[in-house]
Amino acid sequence: MKWVLTKPLENMQLLKEFEEKNSIQLPKCFIDVVMNNNYGRPRPNIFDTDQTKERIAKALLSFDKKHSENIWDTYYAVEKQLPADVYPFMIDQFGNYVCFYYDPLLDTPSIIFFDLESQKVEKVADTFEQFLTVFYEL
């Protein structure tokens, strides 16, 4: 996978701050991706869920608060609409989110797609590592 239009993460402490504020632990693989590709756009960028085909990923949400699509503002803007234990980390072309779902019964968060308008959840992958392998080109 390749990432384009990335922005350097200006403050690494913001990752820890987000974890502490929300009482979660982000997957190490995700942290590595963010540290190297903050706000990046994946190429290829098409993925499927367990219910739909050809979803289009736009970009990782930035951990830097100055970017318009950042994880801080996004999470707090949609927090009340999200299911419990769900945290968005990527946005699609239509304003929907790819999210971590922290199932209390599992050690590792799974990846879901959350359609903001319909409030529908679709499973994408069991882990972030697996998520990185699902992208393809049309």
What does this structure look like?
The chain is of the alpha+beta class and 138 residues long. The protein is 23% helix and 28% strand. The strands form two sheets. The protein has a six-stranded antiparallel β-sheet. A two-stranded antiparallel sheet has the order 1-2.
Task: Indicate the radius of gyration in whole angstroms.
Answer: 14 Å
Q: Overall mean pLDDT score?
A: 96
User: Could you list the spans in which at least 5 consecutive residues all have pLDDT below 50?
Assistant: none
Cross-sheet strand order for the largest sheet: 3-4-5-6-7-8
Shape: globular
Helix fraction by DSSP (H/I, runs of at least 4): 10-25%
Give the end-to-end Cα distance, rounded to a whole number of Å.
15 Å
Strand segment tally: 8
Task: Figure out the total of helices.
Answer: 4
β-sheet strand percentage: 25-35%
Backbone structural class = alpha+beta
SSE map:
Layout: E1 2-4, H1 13-22, H2 28-37, E2 41-43, E3 46-47, E4 55-60, H3 71-78, E5 86-92, E6 97-101, E7 110-115, E8 120-125, H4 128-131
Antiparallel strand pairs: 1-2, 3-4, 4-5, 5-6, 6-7, 7-8
What is this entry, summarized?
It contains four helices and eight strands; from the N terminus they run βααβββαββββα. It is α+β, with helices and mostly antiparallel strands and 138 residues long. The protein starts with a strand and ends in a 7-residue tail after the last helix.
Which terms summarize this structure?
six-stranded antiparallel sheet, 138 residues, alpha+beta, 4 helices
